[in-house]
Amino acid sequence: MTDLPASATSPAHSPADPATAPVEHVLTLDCPEAPGIVHAVSRFLVEHGSDIIDNQQFGDRRDGHFFMRVHFAALGSEHTTATMQRDFAAVAAPFAMRWHLEPVRTRRRVLVMVSRYGHCLNDLLFRTRSGDLPIDVVGVVSNHRDHEALVAWHDIPFFHLPVTAATKPEAEAQLLDVIDSFDVDLVVLARYMQVLSDDLCTRLAGRAINIHHSFLPSFKGAKPYHQAHDRGVKLVGATAHYVTADLDEGPIIAQEVIGVDHSHTPDDLAAIGRDAESAALARAVRWHCEGRVFVQGRRTVVLR
Ligand SMILES: Nc1nc2c(c(=O)[nH]1)N[C@@H](CN(C=O)c1ccc(C(=O)N[C@@H](CCC(=O)O)C(=O)O)cc1)CN2
């Protein structure tokens, strides 16, 4: 066991005492590129008795925008999340930063939406239960009852909102009531097969993630595995992206591919693709919830 530095063993910082244990935070920011951003952030952290655990940054020279994610430990008890948020506002203003500063252990409140195919829902529920994802699934919405028993087993509220062309406005109004009443941070479309309206997409901008069962931009729409089979591809894949009004056009967060061959039927491709879908969606949800994903127009910057 290596000797801890003096500051780590002084009574003020005994790791055993949660009251004085370093509180880990994540600061995420983006702003127009300018000299002195990193210096200003580092000085803020030093002035607030903080130690950087991990730092990622990207300066996009094409559009002159800067992105940064800092995971740090506030060593002293004199600096709380609230006081650091108050103080960082003064650092951010001159650079016109968009920023968030919160404890690293913040768990996002997630609403999962699903239709008939339950593999992504099941994977998210298992990863949440096993602590692999920093989320709380506060509810599941479906336009079918196929997965009601699974969701009940996980002791999570299930909402059956059938959708037809005539009932879509009412169904979406009920969905928004659930999102507001359960204080949902993130909506995850885990093979939810109804197109969300433009108004709903606007209200959920940047906080709704969909899993599309193809390697976009190939094979958009409802039956990508049949399209893939007809084209004779040798890879199938899945794409997790933010939901926008333009179907399957939202900024991409994560993608996964798996090799296939001529012997696979469309159903075989769908079965192989399920693993790619679950993996890509879980990764996108984790990165979003860890504050690693920044939307930059039609694209994303992912600091990982
Ligand atoms: N506004 C958006 N809504 C949704 C998106 C999106 O990108 N923007 N993604 C879909 C999921 N999806 C592909 O990933 C998808 C789902 C459904 C369809 C489709 O054509 N649906 C038909 C009905 C199909 C059925 O009832 O089974 C339709 O809505 O007319 C295409 C792509 C989720 N929503």
Structure characterization notes:
The protein has 304 residues and is an alpha/beta fold. It has 2 domains: 23-103, Alpha-Beta Plaits; 108-302, Formyl transferase, N-terminal domain (Rossmann fold), CATH 3.40.50.170. It has 9 helices and 13 strands. Helix 4 runs parallel beside helix 9 and helix 8 packs across helix 9 (266-289). The model is unreliable at 1-10 (pLDDT under 50). Bound molecules: the ligand Nc1nc2c(c(=O)[nH]1)N[C@@H](CN(C=O)c1ccc(C(=O)N[C@@H](CCC(=O)O)C(=O)O)cc1)CN2.
Number of strands: 13
Spans of at least 5 consecutive residues whose pLDDT stays below 50 are 1-10
Structural class: alpha/beta
Q: Which percent range fits the helix content?
A: 25-40%
Task: Report the sheet with the most strands, covering strand number, pairing sense and barrel closure.
Answer: 7 strands, mixed
Instruction: Give the name of the CATH superfamily of the largest domain.
Output: Formyl transferase, N-terminal domain
CATH top level of the largest domain is Alpha Beta
N-to-C terminal Cα separation, in Å? 29 Å
Radius of gyration: 22 Å
Which hetero compounds are present in the coordinates?
Answer: ligand LMY7XDAE
Q: DSSP helix count?
A: 9
In CATH terms, what is the architecture of the largest domain? 3-Layer(aba) Sandwich
What is the overall pLDDT average?
94
Work out the count of structural domains: 2
Instruction: Please report which band the strand proportion falls in: under 5%, 5-15%, 15-25%, 25-35%, 35-45% or over 45%.
Output: 25-35%
Shape: globular
One letter per element, helices H and strands E, the order comes to HEHEEHEEHEHEHEHEHEEHEE
Lateral strand order in the biggest sheet: 7-6-5-8-9-10-11
Which topology of the largest domain does CATH recognise? Rossmann fold
GO biological process, one term: 'de novo' IMP biosynthetic process
EC number: 3.5.1.10
Family: Belongs to the PurU family.
Protein name: Formyltetrahydrofolate deformylase
